[in-house]
Write a structure and sequence with these properties.
Cytochrome Bc1 Complex, Chain D, domain 2, Cytochrome c, mainly alpha, two-stranded antiparallel ribbon, 134 residues, globular
C-alpha cells in the first residue's frame, strides 16, 4: 500500500506544473475583473469600453478557430504576460501592473515545449481555452 501511495505521489510530481495548477474558476474571476470591460462578459469583444477604444477588442472565443483549430497557447501567454506587446493596449501587457507577475509556474505548450509564467496567467489562459468555439 505504501508503495502505491508513493508511486502516485511521484507521478504527480512529474507532471508539468502548469497542468496541475490550472484553475478555470480563478481564471474566470480574473477575466471578469481585468478583461471583461473591453472584451465583454462573454469574450465576444463587445465590452462596455469598446466605444471609447481606438482598436476594437478581439473576440477571444475564436482564438483557436483563427489558428487552424489549435488554441495558440504560447502566443496568448506571451501577450498577457507582456513578452509580446499588444498595440491595442497602448503599452505592453499587463496594463494592470504587477498583478500578472508572481510565482512562476511551468506550463506545457505546443509540441511539448514549456513556458514559465505566473499562476494568474495560467488560470486565465485555462479559462480562455474553455471559451473557444467548437
Amino acid at each position: 500500500m505504501r508503495i502505491a501511495i508513493l508511486a502516485s505521489m511521484m507521478a504527480a510530481l512529474c507532471l508539468p506544473t502548469g497542468v496541475m495548477a490550472q484553475d478555470t474558476r480563478l481564471g474566470q474571476k480574473t477575466y471578469e475583473r481585468y478583461c471583461a470591460a473591453c472584451h465583454g462578459a462573454d469574450a465576444s469583444g463587445d465590452g462596455p469600453m469598446r466605444p471609447v477604444l481606438t482598436v476594437a477588442p478581439r473576440d477571444l472565443r475564436g482564438l483557436a478557430k483563427d489558428n487552424g483549430g489549435a488554441f495558440p497557447l504560447a502566443r496568448v501567454v506571451r501577450q498577457i504576460d507582456g513578452r509580446d506587446p499588444m498595440l491595442a493596449h497602448g503599452d505592453p501587457m499587463p496594463v494592470y501592473g504587477d498583478f500578472f507577475e508572481g510565482r512562476d509556474v511551468v506550463l506545457k505548450i505546443e509540441e511539448g515545449a514549456q513556458i514559465r509564467t505566473s499562476k494568474a496567467v495560467v488560470d486565465l489562459v485555462a479559462y480562455l481555452q474553455r471559451l473557444q468555439e467548437r
